[in-house]
Model the fold of this input.
Amino acid sequence: MKMSLIRRKLRINDAPARWLAIVLVVPPLLAIAGCGTSPAAAPPARAKSGKNPQVGPQTPPPAKSKPAPASGGPSAAQRVRVYRASDPPPRHDDARLAKVGIHKYSSQRMALYTDLDPEIARPLPEFVDRAYEAWTEYFGPLLPDREGSDFFITGYVMVDQALFRETGLLPRELAPFPHGRNQGTRFWMNDHSTDYYRRHLIVHEGTHCFMTTIDHPFRNRPWYMEGMAELFGTHRVDARGRLQFRVLPADREQFPGLGRIRLIHDEVTESGSREISSVIELHSNEYLSNPAYAWSWGLCQFLDGHPRYHERFQKLGRVVTTGIPADDWETLFADDQADINEEWLLFASHVCHGYDQKRAAIDFRDGEPLKGTPSMKIKVAADRGWQSSGVRVEKGKTYQATATGRFIIANARPSIDRQNPPPTDDVAPADDAANRPWESEPQGISFRYHAGRPLGMLVGTIRATKAPTKPPRTTMLEVISLGQGAEFTASETGTLYLRLNDEWNALADNSGEATVEIRESYDRPK
Done:
């Protein structure tokens, strides 16, 4: 990425009931380990001020005694004004620090002290300015502090950590950390070799600074605090210099060093997907290793990027700037927790670079048995993930699927970035734009494969009426090859779902549909 591009003025573009209850009733942790967020640590007091620097929603200023309001007037709680914690920036001898190689770079929202190369360091504070705009847009505006000062972060990005200790910029009492640690509106961070991941960590730690300005119910919930810091840290700068946060990585090349998708894939391959309850229950000590960050990011990305859950999940985030959730987690998600649990397991099993959350989202719709109806015809769109057939199949019964139609399975397909080398049968000759669009019928095309099946092949899966009680707790990972026509015996009683086989990050350039007829098969007379 060219530094001249980064220097431009950037613009922002935009489970079972048990896991629901955990968020609300788990006792607060003393501190979040992981990247080193320390929510329990109070910011340093302002010298000789006589003012209490530790002010939050639970420590309102003294209120003068007033007569009780008339009926219909504001309550006592509504009349009390609350403040965010006072945390003035530290003062350093910048000239002395410059002599030993530590320079200060400033923007409206950040002072950066670092021994980085000036060409690398100079544009970094402005990323925090743009992140601040994104934080306030998402979480809402911060409460004022008692002094009426602007929110301001001081960051220390260290190439030579010993130099920062010798100069007193890195407190000796600060616990060791592998990547970064924050206290109040200050953070300390070890440098990273890539431009992207350096910015990612700066925004990650800055997000912690923003999210811990007041006391709130999620402040000591590691899955949410670390997941949201990872979510905002995952960003991209487009060709016009516009900065976007909360993106799902499109490929490895633009997000070097991140590795969250690969970590999830490796754990799913080795031991299966973590359920939502398992992610929510992650303990702070588990954030001393990277998989906990990956799962927390994955859950926040899933809920924030899902077209059906996004608005409710963002509403939950208002707790960060108000201290009081508009609605609690259980109220927001209780009605469709079974759908969320199942779709999360599919997301975790299939997530890849460029995963298309919008088109992969499932419109869960229970099927009806074919009783009294000889067959059911369904249209299956090529640019969508699993789609309900509207047919309920019964375990042990045999059914016939017949499919017709032509559709586009690749129009102007970009190169697909897989999180792992594909199986040998997925390897195809180099894409030739002259051969596109790729037309397919329901049997699929023979020169390109996904998950061991031809692209465009009609496939099915059954969503069991009763979710399995043992891992993987979903039957929708079992895929049935159907093609133009096939008989299958239902392994479960539930709704049949259908799709036209394609990579989960390559649905956008598909078009058209197949028509599928489902009928129950009967024994033929001999």
Summary: The longest strand covers residues 511-520. The chain has 17 helices and 19 strands. The CA atoms of residues 271 and 472 lie 10 Å apart.
